[in-house]
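Ticket #4471: structure output looks truncated?

Reporter: J.K.
Steps to reproduce: submitted the chain below (202 residues) through the standard prediction queue, then opened the result file.
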Amino acid sequence: MNSSHLTDDRIENYSMGKLGEPEIAEVEEHLLFCAECQEQVARMDEFVKAIRTAATRTSTETPSIWGRASALFSLHPGSVWAGAVAVASAIFLVGFLPVTSPDVQYLALSTVRGPESSVPHAKTNAPIDLEFDVTDLPASPIYTIELVDRTGAVVRDFTNEPKSSKLNIRIGEKLRPGQYWIRLYGNSLKTDLLREYALKVD
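Returned output as attached by the reporter:
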């Protein structure tokens, strides 16, 4: 091998064990006499080891914020940087993506005011996913859902577009125990009341 330095790609492939036997011998022969390339290989070896360790730990535990930041912002030679950003970003996102709460309640509303036994019940202080069947309602590109308490005070308004024959909203507020009413309007101005549903929160 000539006296020129090893390319970044060759150092990367050497550290990751991707070179064939003849190339390995050439690289190692060059490294015997080139201190600069030795340093590059040492840095690359540390980086590869760190990435593999981070990937292994991610599968069993949540990495620390410092670990994510170190993996994301450490500088590495050559084309490895693009891969480093991708791997570190993946680790970062996995750690910070919101986890769906197992306490979310799913209720399908189909009952207008009626007997107590027919009123859907929800637990207090837990998110509620409501589903409305709008098959038999006048078609509208957008519906408004109004949540009111037993005194008639508006707790929250929701505006949403239907998907197929279903309309879905999430009530994220921590509702206190009591009687609530859910009013479904066929427009955003709340001038076209289509349905009113009872909801009991225990």
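Triage note (M.O.): checked the attachment and the full token line is present. The radius of gyration is 30 Å.
Status: closed, working as intended.
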